[in-house]
Structure formats: structure tokens, C-alpha cells
Amino acid sequence: MIATATQLRLAKILTNRINAEAAEGTLEADKENVIETIDAFVAGNKITLEQSSELNELIQSKTTTK
After folding, report:
1. How many CB atoms lie under 10 A from the CB of residue 18?
2. 54 φ, ψ to 5°?
3. How far apart (Å, rounded) are the C-alpha atoms in residues 46 and 11?
4. 65 FRET partner, CA 20 to 30 A, in 27, 30, 47, 57?
5. 53 vs 64: CA distance, rounded Å
């Protein structure tokens, strides 16, 4: 599925959030909330499943509890 401009922007915002929280050291504690946000965006067709997978992989790469 080709992502729309809105989906691309939302994925970029989520990527920035993940990277910022990882840099601040808060991603580990907020991991479930970020994943729930991603799931909600997928359910609402606001991001694609492919984007969701990429974001979840990014989270996994930046946290210690996998």
C-alpha cells in the first residue's frame, strides 16, 4: 500500500518521538504507550501496516526489553 502524505507525516512524527524519547532515556518507560499510539493509528488507517512494522522495529532497536 502506498502511504499518503498524511500517513508519511504521521510516521515521521512518531519516528521523531521514538528517537527523542530514546535520547532522553524515557522510551523504555513509555514503550507501551508509544506502541498503543502506533496501534491506534493503524486501526484508524492513519498509518500503514508497513509503517507500523518499521516503527515497532525502531522501538525494539532502541529499547533493552524486547
Report:
1. 22
2. -65, -40
3. 9
4. 47
5. 18
SS (H, E, C) the chain: CCCCHHHHHHHHHHHHHHHHHHHHCCHHHHHHHHHHHHHHHHHCCCCCHHHHHHHHHHHHHHCCCC
Count of CB atoms within 10 A of residue 55's CB? 22
Residue 37: all three cell numbers together:
499510539
Quote the CA–CA distance of 61 and 49 in Å, as a whole number.
Answer: 18
Q: State pTM to two decimals.
A: 0.91
